[in-house]
Amino acid sequence: MFVIGDLHGRIDLLDRVLEKADGAEQIICVGDYVDRGERSADVLARLQARDDIVCLKGNHEDMMMSFIEDPQNAGPRWLRYGGLQTLASYGVSGVSDTSRGAELETARDQMTAKMGTALIDWLHARPLRYQSGNVAVVHAGADPACPVDQQSNSVLLWGHPDFLKKQRQDGTWVVHGHTIVDDPSAQNGRVSVDTGAYATGRLTAARISGDGVTFVSA
Question: Range of 95's domain?
Answer without folding.
Answer: 71-115
